[in-house]
Amino acid sequence: MTENYFGSALRRRIIFIIIVGMVSVQSFQLVNMQLLESGKYEEKSKDNSIKTFPISAPRGIVFDRNIEILVGNKPSFTLQITPSEYNQSNSKLIESVLNVDSGYINKLFLRYKKFAKFKPITLMKGVDYKIISWLEENHVELSGITYIVETKRDYSFGINAAHVFGYTKEIDRKTLNRNKDKYSIGDNIGFGGIEKKYEEYLRGKKGEEYFVVNSRQRIVSRYDKGKSDIQAIKGNDLVLTLDYETQKISEELMRNYKGAVVALNPTNGEILSFVSAPQYDLSDFAGVTSIAVWDSLLNDKNKPLFNRGTISMYPPGSTYKMLVAMAAIEEGIIKPSYEVNCKGGLQLGNRFFKCTHFHGKVNLKEAIEESCNTYFYKLIRKVGIDNLSKYSKKFHLGEKTQIDLSPESEGLIPSIEYYDKVLGKGKLTDGYLLNLSIGQGEIITTPVQLAQYIALIANSGVTKVPHFAKGYIESSSNEFIPFEFDSVKAEISKKSFKLIQDAMKGVVNSEKGTASGIKLKDILISGKTGTAQNPHGEDHSIFVAYAPSENPEIAVAVIIENIGYGSTFAAPVAQKIIATYLNREKRKMDLFNFNTKVPN
Q1: What is the CATH number of the domain that holds 216?
Q2: Residues 560, 537: contact at Cβ < 8 Å?
Q3: C-alpha pair distances (Å), 524 with each of 502, 504, 527
């Protein structure tokens, strides 16, 4: 009797515990699903009934200073794949149609496995319309594969300017992880040039369309009759300082050369043309860039991807003589009437430093006009390394210009500290100074630094930071909003500037001037030739100039690598650039008021 009772009570207890346990588990699951994870299941439920399609936002158009299109947009098909809906048994077929390596799709899934599996990721951009037609015909069997119409950059407007514009490419994972609030998988982002620098202005804001779908993910209807859709917002249009015709002629003139052109307005730093030659074809970067194109560019011995305008560093050659002269005048070391008798060079110890000619007696103005090396060999021994370094800094040589294009090199202006470190304390000799006096030796500058240096001379010591962007046109209001840039100054007396300006005018317009061959009847040009020695081959040809001489509107620096004299090669290029800019029959910018709304 006792055993039966014990056995019956034990069974009841065990059954009770099991029931309580099951109820507890069920209760916990209900609480967990309804309270703790409600958002997750609500999202899945909505995903099963409402399908979201992104609406791509076109990037802003890039205009020149006269509102001529430089970079536009054109339509492009982009394939997308949603991992949660995709049948992986279709991978071989799709990879074959797309002509990609086997395993391409699986690698794509692994790359983006940390991102939502219910949202589409980019499978391929710039897909041919034939593939889109095939996809439409077989969409029932190809679940999870969709396409959207996006835009890609259009570079068919006659200007290349590859190193200025840069290009767009699909955002990488690191950048995406840092900017999840701004970008999604597959978005394009500016890479290099103004596309990168002004990304926040150029990129638009994507929209979304909502559709009701059935259990097979077929679209049934528009959700909420489209009232809940979010419209895409186009990026702001960017207005550059470039002048279309001036940029075009600059590119044509440098087509067969290696080197750089930087032309700017000396009063405000606005860059009118900018060429790094050789260039590369931006149309190769509008869509998906092939490995073959990349390899050819990377292996090209002429380095077309390298921006010579801001990165390459060259000896300034005789264009540096104006700075040496100003240092001597400002410090009271000589008067403008100071003369030197040039006999073809200067003997220093057992070395003879050559001049270009036997100039005879020349004063400061004549020495610049005729580019007499002997004059500056003697002058630099009076000026000294400290003054040379001091006045180079006044003209911001040896430091970045802060141009709105990166990367940028600093160049080098050697000081006594530099030589003490490199040669040993007290080992600097006059031989080093003589080389520096004609812009040779250890001194190196970038083309954009030379352009700023000449702008400061042209405008008597005041300009602004060199820049490409004039402002942007706000997409919603169609209003032009200008950018502001800092002033750049060289603290030199007006008297010294006037002396140098007169001498530079004589370089082109006097009978003995080294650039008299580019003299024009209708435009008064001031300039300075330079020929920089190159230990690896032919000399670099350099010419800096501004015009008109009395009221400068354009300053130019031209450097052509490994070709010879500045007067022979670089000067004619600068002349044609100046003439193109100043001789346009009608300047559209004069008729366009940027304080008003931009016309549609």
Answers
A1: 3.90.1310.10
A2: no
A3: 12, 11, 10
**Ranges of the chain with pLDDT below 70:** 1-8, 31-48, 113-118, 215-219, 288, 585-600
Domain total of the chain: 2
Whose tokens are 């920089």? That residue is 532
Strand order of the sheet with strand 219-222? Answer: 50-55, 207-213, 219-222
Summarize pLDDT for 338-363 with one digit per residue, the tens. 999 999 999 999 999 999 899 999 99
Q: Is residue 5 part of a domain?
A: no
Closest CA to 274 of 297, 246, 302: 246
296 within a domain of the structure (yes/no): no
- A 10 A CB-CB count for 492 gives 21
**Residue 485, domain extent:** 244-278+307-589
In degrees, rounded to 5, the angle at the alpha carbon of residue 503 between the alpha carbons of residues 389 and 361 is 90
User: Does residue 15 sit within a domain?
Assistant: no
pLDDT digits (tens, 9 = 90+) for 389-401: 999 999 999 999 9
Q: Based on the domain organization, do 227 and 256 belong to the same domain?
A: no
Whole-model pTM: value is 0.84
Token pair of 567 as six digits:
């007067």
Q: What's the token pair of residue 110? A: 């692994």
Residues 84 and 136 in one domain: yes
Residue 584 lies in a domain: yes
In 3-state terms the chain splits into helix, strand, coil percentages (rounded to 5) of 40, 20, 40
Segment 416-419 long-range contacts (CB within 8 Å, at least 24 positions apart): 416/385, 416/386, 416/389, 418/442, 419/385
